[in-house]
Amino acid sequence: MSAGQQSWHPERYARHARFVSDLGAPVLALLAPQPGERILDLGCGDGALTERLVAEGAEVVAVDASPEQVAGARARGLDARVMRGEALEFEQAFDAVFSNAALHWMKDADAVLEGVARALKPGGRFVGEFGGGNNVARLRRALIEALDRRGHDGAAADPWYFPDEAEYGAKLAAAGFTVESIELIPRWTPLPGDVEGWLETFGGAFLSHLQEEQRAEAVAEVREALRDELQDEEGRWHADYVRLRFAARLTAA
Ligand code: BEZ
């Protein structure tokens, strides 16, 4: 684990993060993929939702910055490529760009939007959902504090970009899109297991700043700090997700 880097482990992801694609139905419905459409899935992860686009009859190219996730997507038989969202290499190639639960990992949103606009045919649509506003505010705060207490700059280690509707709507417009809908949706989400699984799956960019032997202790401390806020009376853990869901269309030239 190199300092500051989020890494992905397919087996851990399948165990602790399957709900990410399971909860993708509303944004898929907003996209409404049509048979024969060419669609780019931006930040495809292990390809679980990409498969659903293919099942609708779309011709899909999937990209992700993680070689491990792309290997998982290819194992499903998908056309998946390792590519950073800030450096998309397509020109007027797609009818639609789709993204679920990925854009918050791409801090340079302007570079992403420039690449998405370039990848779309004139009038093409960009439909997505990602963390917005106060997304995972409790989890984020507890991780920052755990790093601060150990002499690190927790805020500087934060890998996430969670804009609100006004900020992201303005960025979409500046990149040449007409925003058709954009809304913040609080989504208190039951986790499939202990919050430690979530922290180990998604908190890598924070935890990677710590020595190996400090990590388990920090995770246990964060868990304890969050128990009253995120664990219910039956012992079930939740994450305080807020989604930013949007549909935009590239303004015809
Ligand atoms: C999200 O889907 O909102 C998210 C997932 C992991 C870390 C941060 C945010």
Give the full name of the CATH homologous superfamily of the domain at 10-136 and 160-191 and 240-250: Vaccinia Virus protein VP39
Number of helices: 11
N-to-C SSE string, H for helix and E for strand: HHEHEHEEHEHHHEHHHE
Strand content: 15-25%
Top keywords for this entry?
253 residues, alpha/beta, Rossmann fold, 7-stranded mixed beta sheet, 42% helix, globular
Question: Can you describe what's shown?
Answer:
With 253 residues, this protein is of the alpha/beta class. It has a domain of 170 residues: Vaccinia Virus protein VP39 (Rossmann fold, 3-Layer(aba) Sandwich). Helices cover 42% and strands 24% of the residues. The protein is built from eleven helices and seven strands. A seven-stranded mixed β-sheet has the order 3-2-1-4-5-7-6, with helices on both faces. Helix 3 links the parallel strand 1 and strand 2. The longest helix has 19 residues. The protein is globular. The relative contact order is 0.17. The site of benzoic acid has 8 residues, from loops.
Record the SSE blueprint.
Elements: H1 10-22, H2 25-31, E1 38-42, H3 48-55, E2 59-64, H4 67-75, E3 80-82, E4 94-100, H5 109-119, E5 120-131, H6 137-149, H7 154-157, H8 165-174, E6 177-190, H9 195-202, H10 204-207, H11 212-230, E7 238-250
Parallel strand pairs: 1-2, 1-4, 2-3, 4-5
Antiparallel strand pairs: 5-7, 6-7
Helix pairs in contact: 6-11
The protein binds benzoic acid (BEZ).
Benzoic acid is lined by residues 101, 104, 131, 135-136, 160, 202, 241.
